[in-house]
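Hi Y.,

Following your request, here is the sequence exactly as I used it, all 288 residues.
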Amino acid sequence: MELRTLRYFLAVCEEENLSKAAARLYLTEPTLSRQIHDLEKELGSLLFVRGKKIVLTPEGKILRKRAEEMLFLEKKTEDEVKSKDEALVGNITIGAAETDAVRQIGKAMLKLEKEHPGLSLSLVSGDVEDILDKLDSGIYDFALICGPADSKHYGYLRLPHKDIISVLMRKDDHLARKEFVEAKDLVDQPLILSRQQIDSGIIENILQTKISALHIAARFNLLNNAALLVSEGMGYCPSFDNLINVEGTELTFRPFKPLVEVEANLIWKKNADLSKAARLLLESLRKE
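Below is the corresponding structure, written out as C-alpha coordinates. Let me know if you'd prefer a different format.
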Protein backbone atom coordinates (compact mmCIF):
# COMPACT_ATOMS: atom_id res chain seq x y z
CA MET A 1 0.00 0.00 0.00
CA GLU A 2 1.66 3.21 -1.20
CA LEU A 3 1.20 6.66 0.30
CA ARG A 4 0.37 7.95 -3.17
CA THR A 5 -2.57 5.55 -3.35
CA LEU A 6 -3.75 6.67 0.08
CA ARG A 7 -3.75 10.27 -1.15
CA TYR A 8 -5.96 9.20 -4.05
CA PHE A 9 -8.27 7.39 -1.63
CA LEU A 10 -8.57 10.44 0.66
CA ALA A 11 -9.32 12.71 -2.29
CA VAL A 12 -12.27 10.49 -3.21
CA CYS A 13 -13.41 10.52 0.44
CA GLU A 14 -13.30 14.32 0.56
CA GLU A 15 -14.93 14.94 -2.82
CA GLU A 16 -17.48 12.11 -2.49
CA ASN A 17 -17.37 11.92 -6.25
CA LEU A 18 -14.93 10.07 -8.50
CA SER A 19 -14.99 12.64 -11.32
CA LYS A 20 -14.31 15.58 -9.00
CA ALA A 21 -11.54 13.69 -7.23
CA ALA A 22 -9.92 12.77 -10.55
CA ALA A 23 -10.01 16.40 -11.71
CA ARG A 24 -8.47 17.54 -8.42
CA LEU A 25 -5.67 14.98 -8.79
CA TYR A 26 -5.13 15.70 -12.50
CA LEU A 27 -5.94 12.09 -13.34
CA THR A 28 -8.41 10.56 -15.74
CA GLU A 29 -11.45 9.03 -14.08
CA PRO A 30 -10.66 5.48 -15.36
CA THR A 31 -7.12 5.75 -13.96
CA LEU A 32 -8.37 6.82 -10.51
CA SER A 33 -11.09 4.16 -10.57
CA ARG A 34 -8.48 1.49 -11.32
CA GLN A 35 -6.26 2.72 -8.47
CA ILE A 36 -9.16 2.50 -5.99
CA HIS A 37 -10.16 -0.93 -7.32
CA ASP A 38 -6.58 -2.18 -6.90
CA LEU A 39 -6.50 -0.83 -3.34
CA GLU A 40 -9.73 -2.66 -2.52
CA LYS A 41 -8.34 -5.84 -4.05
CA GLU A 42 -5.10 -5.49 -2.05
CA LEU A 43 -7.03 -5.01 1.22
CA GLY A 44 -9.68 -7.59 0.41
CA SER A 45 -12.45 -5.17 1.36
CA LEU A 46 -14.96 -2.94 -0.36
CA LEU A 47 -14.16 0.66 0.61
CA PHE A 48 -16.98 2.56 -1.08
CA VAL A 49 -20.62 2.07 -1.95
CA ARG A 50 -20.87 3.50 -5.46
CA GLY A 51 -23.78 5.68 -6.48
CA LYS A 52 -24.53 9.32 -7.32
CA LYS A 53 -22.69 10.06 -4.11
CA ILE A 54 -19.85 7.81 -3.00
CA VAL A 55 -20.32 6.58 0.57
CA LEU A 56 -17.68 4.93 2.74
CA THR A 57 -18.24 1.40 3.99
CA PRO A 58 -17.31 0.61 7.63
CA GLU A 59 -13.96 -0.71 6.32
CA GLY A 60 -13.53 2.49 4.32
CA LYS A 61 -14.09 4.61 7.42
CA ILE A 62 -11.36 2.70 9.24
CA LEU A 63 -8.94 3.17 6.35
CA ARG A 64 -9.75 6.87 6.09
CA LYS A 65 -8.85 7.42 9.74
CA ARG A 66 -5.60 5.48 9.44
CA ALA A 67 -4.69 7.03 6.08
CA GLU A 68 -5.04 10.53 7.53
CA GLU A 69 -2.81 9.51 10.42
CA MET A 70 -0.18 7.97 8.12
CA LEU A 71 0.02 11.02 5.86
CA PHE A 72 0.19 13.31 8.89
CA LEU A 73 3.08 11.26 10.26
CA GLU A 74 4.82 11.39 6.87
CA LYS A 75 4.73 15.20 6.90
CA LYS A 76 5.71 15.33 10.58
CA THR A 77 8.67 13.03 10.00
CA GLU A 78 9.80 15.04 6.99
CA ASP A 79 9.73 18.28 9.01
CA GLU A 80 11.67 16.72 11.89
CA VAL A 81 14.39 15.22 9.67
CA LYS A 82 14.85 18.48 7.78
CA SER A 83 15.07 20.60 10.93
CA LYS A 84 18.49 21.82 12.02
CA ASP A 85 19.68 23.19 15.35
CA GLU A 86 20.79 26.45 13.82
CA ALA A 87 17.34 27.09 12.35
CA LEU A 88 14.92 25.02 14.38
CA VAL A 89 11.62 24.51 12.59
CA GLY A 90 8.69 22.19 13.14
CA ASN A 91 5.24 21.82 14.55
CA ILE A 92 4.46 20.60 18.06
CA THR A 93 1.09 18.85 18.26
CA ILE A 94 -0.68 18.58 21.61
CA GLY A 95 -3.99 16.90 22.27
CA ALA A 96 -5.58 18.78 25.14
CA ALA A 97 -8.48 18.41 27.49
CA GLU A 98 -10.37 21.57 28.39
CA THR A 99 -8.22 23.10 31.12
CA ASP A 100 -6.85 26.50 32.05
CA ALA A 101 -3.40 24.87 32.11
CA VAL A 102 -3.33 25.53 28.35
CA ARG A 103 -2.25 29.05 29.33
CA GLN A 104 1.09 27.67 30.55
CA ILE A 105 1.63 25.92 27.22
CA GLY A 106 0.87 29.19 25.47
CA LYS A 107 3.33 31.18 27.58
CA ALA A 108 6.12 28.65 26.99
CA MET A 109 5.45 28.53 23.23
CA LEU A 110 5.44 32.33 23.00
CA LYS A 111 8.98 32.43 24.40
CA LEU A 112 10.16 29.64 22.10
CA GLU A 113 8.65 31.18 18.98
CA LYS A 114 10.51 34.44 19.67
CA GLU A 115 13.80 32.51 19.72
CA HIS A 116 12.81 30.10 16.94
CA PRO A 117 10.32 31.71 14.51
CA GLY A 118 10.09 28.43 12.58
CA LEU A 119 8.28 26.70 15.44
CA SER A 120 4.50 26.42 15.61
CA LEU A 121 1.90 24.78 17.84
CA SER A 122 -1.13 22.67 16.91
CA LEU A 123 -3.49 22.37 19.86
CA VAL A 124 -6.30 19.86 19.33
CA SER A 125 -9.17 19.54 21.81
CA GLY A 126 -10.82 16.23 22.59
CA ASP A 127 -11.69 13.76 25.30
CA VAL A 128 -9.03 11.64 26.96
CA GLU A 129 -9.82 8.43 25.05
CA ASP A 130 -9.36 10.07 21.64
CA ILE A 131 -6.32 12.05 22.76
CA LEU A 132 -4.50 9.00 24.13
CA ASP A 133 -5.27 6.99 20.99
CA LYS A 134 -3.55 9.63 18.85
CA LEU A 135 -0.69 10.01 21.32
CA ASP A 136 -0.08 6.26 21.23
CA SER A 137 -0.14 6.21 17.42
CA GLY A 138 2.39 9.06 17.18
CA ILE A 139 -0.01 11.68 15.83
CA TYR A 140 0.44 13.86 18.92
CA ASP A 141 3.76 14.76 20.54
CA PHE A 142 2.10 15.38 23.89
CA ALA A 143 -1.23 15.13 25.63
CA LEU A 144 -2.41 17.61 28.24
CA ILE A 145 -4.68 15.75 30.63
CA CYS A 146 -6.57 16.55 33.80
CA GLY A 147 -5.90 14.13 36.62
CA PRO A 148 -3.06 11.72 37.43
CA ALA A 149 -0.78 10.37 34.69
CA ASP A 150 -0.28 6.67 34.00
CA SER A 151 3.45 6.55 34.79
CA LYS A 152 3.68 2.92 33.62
CA HIS A 153 3.02 3.88 30.00
CA TYR A 154 3.79 7.60 29.83
CA GLY A 155 6.44 10.07 30.78
CA TYR A 156 4.86 13.08 32.43
CA LEU A 157 5.40 16.58 33.74
CA ARG A 158 3.02 17.80 36.43
CA LEU A 159 2.24 21.41 35.70
CA PRO A 160 2.06 23.94 38.56
CA HIS A 161 -1.67 24.37 38.05
CA LYS A 162 -4.84 22.95 39.53
CA ASP A 163 -8.36 23.33 38.18
CA ILE A 164 -11.32 23.53 40.56
CA ILE A 165 -14.47 21.57 39.73
CA SER A 166 -17.57 23.61 40.54
CA VAL A 167 -21.22 23.35 39.53
CA LEU A 168 -22.56 25.48 36.70
CA MET A 169 -26.18 26.52 37.31
CA ARG A 170 -28.65 29.31 36.72
CA LYS A 171 -28.44 32.31 39.05
CA ASP A 172 -32.13 31.97 39.88
CA ASP A 173 -31.71 28.33 40.93
CA HIS A 174 -32.33 27.51 44.59
CA LEU A 175 -28.80 26.05 44.94
CA ALA A 176 -27.33 29.39 43.82
CA ARG A 177 -28.36 30.79 47.21
CA LYS A 178 -25.77 28.52 48.84
CA GLU A 179 -22.09 29.36 49.14
CA PHE A 180 -21.09 25.74 48.47
CA VAL A 181 -22.73 22.69 46.91
CA GLU A 182 -22.57 19.36 48.71
CA ALA A 183 -22.89 15.90 47.19
CA LYS A 184 -26.34 15.38 48.70
CA ASP A 185 -27.60 18.48 46.84
CA LEU A 186 -27.05 16.88 43.41
CA VAL A 187 -27.73 13.17 43.89
CA ASP A 188 -31.40 13.42 42.83
CA GLN A 189 -31.00 16.35 40.42
CA PRO A 190 -30.70 16.32 36.59
CA LEU A 191 -27.02 16.40 35.60
CA ILE A 192 -25.27 17.38 32.39
CA LEU A 193 -22.06 15.36 32.15
CA SER A 194 -19.23 14.75 29.71
CA ARG A 195 -18.23 11.27 28.58
CA GLN A 196 -14.93 11.67 30.38
CA GLN A 197 -16.66 12.55 33.66
CA ILE A 198 -18.81 9.44 33.33
CA ASP A 199 -16.06 7.04 32.23
CA SER A 200 -13.33 8.24 34.60
CA GLY A 201 -15.44 7.77 37.72
CA ILE A 202 -14.73 11.29 38.97
CA ILE A 203 -18.43 12.15 39.36
CA GLU A 204 -19.01 8.91 41.26
CA ASN A 205 -16.17 9.87 43.59
CA ILE A 206 -17.45 13.41 44.15
CA LEU A 207 -21.09 12.45 44.68
CA GLN A 208 -20.33 9.09 46.32
CA THR A 209 -23.01 7.56 44.13
CA LYS A 210 -22.89 5.08 41.25
CA ILE A 211 -23.41 6.61 37.80
CA SER A 212 -26.31 4.20 37.20
CA ALA A 213 -28.15 5.76 40.15
CA LEU A 214 -27.74 9.35 38.96
CA HIS A 215 -30.18 11.30 36.79
CA ILE A 216 -28.15 12.13 33.67
CA ALA A 217 -30.26 14.58 31.70
CA ALA A 218 -27.70 15.14 28.92
CA ARG A 219 -24.17 14.27 27.80
CA PHE A 220 -21.75 16.65 26.11
CA ASN A 221 -18.22 16.99 24.75
CA LEU A 222 -18.07 20.80 24.41
CA LEU A 223 -18.59 22.85 27.55
CA ASN A 224 -20.04 25.82 25.67
CA ASN A 225 -22.90 23.61 24.47
CA ALA A 226 -23.42 22.28 27.98
CA ALA A 227 -23.65 25.87 29.25
CA LEU A 228 -26.50 26.53 26.81
CA LEU A 229 -28.38 23.52 28.20
CA VAL A 230 -27.84 24.79 31.75
CA SER A 231 -29.07 28.20 30.66
CA GLU A 232 -32.31 26.58 29.47
CA GLY A 233 -32.77 24.99 32.88
CA MET A 234 -32.06 21.44 31.76
CA GLY A 235 -29.80 20.60 34.70
CA TYR A 236 -26.56 21.15 36.59
CA CYS A 237 -23.13 20.82 35.01
CA PRO A 238 -20.03 20.04 37.11
CA SER A 239 -17.05 21.56 35.32
CA PHE A 240 -13.89 23.59 35.79
CA ASP A 241 -14.96 27.04 36.93
CA ASN A 242 -12.46 28.99 34.83
CA LEU A 243 -13.45 27.79 31.36
CA ILE A 244 -16.74 29.67 30.99
CA ASN A 245 -17.09 33.40 31.57
CA VAL A 246 -20.43 33.74 33.37
CA GLU A 247 -20.14 37.48 34.02
CA GLY A 248 -23.19 39.29 32.66
CA THR A 249 -25.09 36.04 32.04
CA GLU A 250 -27.86 34.17 33.86
CA LEU A 251 -25.32 31.53 34.92
CA THR A 252 -23.09 31.14 37.96
CA PHE A 253 -20.70 28.63 39.54
CA ARG A 254 -20.79 27.20 43.03
CA PRO A 255 -17.81 25.18 44.35
CA PHE A 256 -18.16 21.82 46.01
CA LYS A 257 -17.67 21.35 49.72
CA PRO A 258 -15.12 19.96 50.29
CA LEU A 259 -13.25 21.69 47.46
CA VAL A 260 -12.44 19.46 44.45
CA GLU A 261 -9.09 20.24 42.81
CA VAL A 262 -7.67 18.44 39.77
CA GLU A 263 -4.01 18.48 38.73
CA ALA A 264 -2.85 18.95 35.12
CA ASN A 265 -0.18 16.77 33.50
CA LEU A 266 1.64 17.00 30.20
CA ILE A 267 2.34 13.43 29.10
CA TRP A 268 4.21 11.69 26.26
CA LYS A 269 4.86 8.11 25.18
CA LYS A 270 7.42 6.47 27.41
CA ASN A 271 10.78 6.02 25.64
CA ALA A 272 9.48 8.05 22.69
CA ASP A 273 12.06 9.76 20.51
CA LEU A 274 10.72 13.29 20.85
CA SER A 275 11.49 15.80 18.13
CA LYS A 276 13.93 18.64 18.80
CA ALA A 277 11.05 21.08 18.97
CA ALA A 278 9.11 18.92 21.45
CA ARG A 279 12.16 18.48 23.66
CA LEU A 280 12.69 22.23 23.68
CA LEU A 281 9.10 22.85 24.83
CA LEU A 282 9.48 20.25 27.58
CA GLU A 283 12.69 21.88 28.81
CA SER A 284 11.02 25.28 28.82
CA LEU A 285 8.07 24.04 30.87
CA ARG A 286 10.36 22.33 33.36
CA LYS A 287 12.01 25.66 34.06
CA GLU A 288 8.71 27.35 34.86
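The chain is about 40% helix and 25% strand.

Thanks again,
Q.
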